[in-house]
Specification:
By secondary structure, this protein is mainly α. The protein contains seven helices and no strands. The protein has one domain. The chain has helices spanning 2-11, 16-26, 34-56, 64-83, 96-124, 128-163, 168-194. Keywords: Membrane, Transmembrane, Transmembrane helix.
């Protein structure tokens, strides 16, 4: 049940902000970068898990509207950072420092995204031992759902850059530009709902 809940949390159509964030996070990567991608989405899941755990234990409460605006803002920031990247025909290996910064950002944004589901998760969690089991099952489902999205994006990236022979830079601009536009729409929509 909790595995399914985690999987559906990332795959469901009403989870579009989480899907768009994962898509934006991956925009600068290609199939050859699969290890970095796996670390990146795992860092996001760890942040997400931490927030769910502390909210499930009652240590954190949050304003839903504020969290939803911050989630959209995280997509916006990720897209802007991607668009600022200079990607030549072949993506250079980022430095260890750049990679660690990117993993840290994914973790921090995972904390914010976890708050988006915290209220629902808190209502289904019980004691500490029960919480650990539910959180583990939920996060395994979430991670598998993210991997499905990652594989789909990598397949589309391969088709775009190899089969259609387009530049990796163009792929980044396409994904990041779309994520940027959607995030702005979400921010204005959510700010309007908050007013």
């Amino acid at each position: 049940m909790y595995f399914d809940l985690g999987f559906e949390h990332i795959i469901a159509l009403d989870a579009q902000d989480h899907i768009i964030f994962v898509v934006a996070l991956m925009a600068i990567y290609q199939l050859k970068d699969w290890r970095k991608i796996l670390i990146l989405v795992t860092a996001f899941t760890l942040g997400h898990s931490l927030t769910l755990a502390i909210s499930g234990l009652g240590y954190v409460t949050s304003n839903t509207t504020t969290v939803e605006i911050l989630i959209a803002f995280s997509i916006l920031v990720t897209a802007i950072v991607n668009l600022g990247q200079k990607l030549p025909k072949t993506t250079p290996q980022p430095s260890t420092r750049e990679a660690l910064i990117r993993y840290g950002i994914a973790f921090c944004f995972g904390l914010i995204h976890g708050l988006g589901f915290a209220r629902q998760f808190k209502s289904i969690s019980g004691g500490i031992s029960d919480l650990i089991f539910k959180l583990l099952a939920f996060n395994i489902g979430l991670e598998i759902g993210q991997i499905v999205i990652v594989l789909l994006i990598l397949l589309l990236s391969f088709l775009f850059t190899r089969q259609l022979q387009k530049k990796e830079h163009d792929w980044n601009v396409l994904l990041s530009g779309a994520a940027l536009g959607i995030s702005l729409f979400l921010i204005f929509q959510r700010l309007g709902g908050a007013a």
